[in-house]
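Reopening: structure tokens for the S-adenosylmethionine complex, inputs below.
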Amino acid sequence: MSKFRRLLSHPGQVVRSRSIRALFPVLKVHNSVQRLALWNLGKAPRVALERLFPGVDDVDLTLIGPFKRTVETLLDLTEVAAVAAIMKSVKARRIVEVGTCDGNTTVNIAANSPDDAVITTIELPHDWDGKYKMHVSAEDVNVTDRDKIGGRFLRSPYRNKIKQIFADSAALDWSKLGGPFDAIFIDGCHSYSYVKSDTDNALANLAPHGLIVWHDYGYMADLTKAVDEYAQSLNVSVIQGTRLAVARRRAAVN
Ligand SMILES: C[S@@+](CC[C@H](N)C(=O)[O-])C[C@H]1O[C@@H](n2cnc3c(N)ncnc32)[C@H](O)[C@@H]1O
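Re-run output (same inputs, fresh job):
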């Protein structure tokens, strides 16, 4: 796609251009503002969490090691809290996460779900050979050190609620995961092809009332583009102040 066409489909890219970013320090734009300014891609409306999930403001949370990580592209504290609060407010029991990483989100979902909840978390195998099932461009290669996978929950009291699946999410037979699921959190490989594949698999294994949450909406162009393409069939909104997009199926029109 030409640079100009890319800008038309994602006007927010202007803020990302090197020349504009070079102005941030000159204008003394605070680091945290610079960070949020880059979360502006995509067409989905930004909506306050409590408008999307009425009653969520009454939810109390248990946060496990909330400051025990470097954020960067990973979920920050607000985002982890929002995911856990959503799962708790919709009383999700059967949950899937794509992309386990160190297990920070997994353990925080587990700590805020009913005792009989099962969180199935998918991650590339320990002996992964470096070959993806689908095309992934170099900038979308994002693989956690194998010895860190699930480290946040392996010895936690929530371990028994967490089921680990080691597979490439696009090579996996999702029908064997034990769905239908109440909620599916997509945060694995962020390339366009993987986001589409993970979302199609999620939709095929989602309960009728179920919801999908994606991380990195508005921040990663490929992921944002893929999610925007579901707007015809899904009600997609972004939780204000986060990179979390959430969706439920649109009600069928007779
Ligand atoms: C952004 S991190 C996930 C962060 C995690 N969900 C959290 O909230 O802390 C992405 C993870 O997906 C894994 N991953 C990348 N490609 C994958 C694939 N094709 N199938 C399964 N996992 C994948 C990476 O190894 C990495 O651990």
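The mean pLDDT is 92. Residues 142 and 189 are 7 Å apart (CA to CA). Marking as resolved unless the reporter disagrees.
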